[in-house]
Amino acid sequence: MSLFEDGSSQRAYLLKERVRDEDELARALREVVAGRSLVDSRIVDKLVSARLNNDPGVEKLTAREREILALIAEGRSNASIADSLDITKRAVERHINGIFLKLDLGESSDVNRRVKAALLYLTGQGR
User: Fold this and answer.
1) What is the pLDDT of residues 34-50, one digit of tens each?
2) Has residue 102 got a pLDDT over 70?
3) Which of 41, 45, 66, 101 is deepest in the core (most CB within 10 A)?
């Protein structure tokens, strides 16, 4: 998490095994050059598992909402989430709205609720 203390723009974290994969390394470099961030999915999985076990705020969420929030934390789009869970995009949107309500993330012009939910989830501040 200290890698992202000053923001996530133009940062990447890959495990050694992934750095050996030329395609994965090239993808990470393209993301960073474009100003985005990339975190190895296995790291996200570990952070998500830790969150599920230690975060009372997440306990308010249904199993499906936790599953969707984990996919949001991986950087997935609504369409990608819908495809991977075999549900409609509209169902994903309804679950995300439920997540926002339960994590007390109201409308704001200066905060992206989706990013905030993922960060609260991964850092354990969604209590």
Assistant:
1) 888 777 777 776 666 65
2) yes
3) 66
pTM of the complete model: 0.55
Q: What are 48's two structure tokens?
A: 């998500």
Instruction: Quote the CA–CA distance of 24 and 109 in Å, as a whole number.
Output: 35
Backbone angles phi, psi at 74, to 5 degrees: -80, -10
3-state helix, strand, coil in the chain (%, to 5): 65, 5, 35
* Contact by Cβ (8 Å): 28, 38: yes
Q: Could you tell me what percent of the chain has a pLDDT over 90?
A: 25
Other Cβ atoms closer than 10 A to 71 = 21
Which has more pLDDT, 109 or 89? Answer: 89
CA atoms within 13 A on the CB side of 104: 4
Is 82 within 8 Å of 95 (Cβ atoms)? no
Q: Give SS3 for 48.
A: helix
**Which among 100, 103, 67, 97 has a CA at the least distance from the CA of 82?**
67
Close Cβ partners of 35 (under 8 Å, ≥ 6 residues apart): 9, 10
